[in-house]
Backbone:
């Protein structure tokens, strides 16, 4: 992957970061997909030798600073997510697109669960399972996003 490839990866990840922090009405916040998690998962699966835990950590720190969350909370969650996808990327590539979507839901759900657990340390406890909705929506978007990103990567010649 050349310098253009690196720039494209960072551009997509920063675009996902912008989508992640885009202002929405409070009632809609629970329906926002985990854009950063899904794009990080895609790049960890597509180019595991280039995108990894460090990317998740840096993006998580940026998200912590933007959201005003305790420093390191999102960094830990995104680093864990990148690690899990890097751990399973070879098996992940063999699965059909729908099996991949189920695995994306499971891994994003684990990340959301860890994030919810960390939030309960610093704030009020929530007993509902609506914190899993971003993982569910991200997994429903996975087939479309994966196909679109594969087409873009081939057109741009990004390895």
Residues:
């Amino acid at each position: 992957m050349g310098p253009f490839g690196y720039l494209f990866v960072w551009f997509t990840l920063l675009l996902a970061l912008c989508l992640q922090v885009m202002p929405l009405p409070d009632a809609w916040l629970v329906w926002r997909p985990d854009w950063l998690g899904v794009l990080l998962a895609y790049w960890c699966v597509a180019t595991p030798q280039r995108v990894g835990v460090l990317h998740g950590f840096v993006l998580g720190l940026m998200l912590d600073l933007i959201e005003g969350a305790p420093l390191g909370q999102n960094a830990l969650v995104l680093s864990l997510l990148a690690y899990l996808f890097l751990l399973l990327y070879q098996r992940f590539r063999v699965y059909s697109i729908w099996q991949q979507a189920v695995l994306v839901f499971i891994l994003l759900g684990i990340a959301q669960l860890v994030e919810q657990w960390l939030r309960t340390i610093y704030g009020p406890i929530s007993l509902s399972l609506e914190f899993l909705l971003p993982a569910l929506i991200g997994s429903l978007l996975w087939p479309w996003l994966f196909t679109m990103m594969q087409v873009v990567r081939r057109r741009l010649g990004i390895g």
About this structure: The radius of gyration is 15 Å. The helical segments are 3-21, 35-46, 53-67, 73-94, 97-122, 133-156.
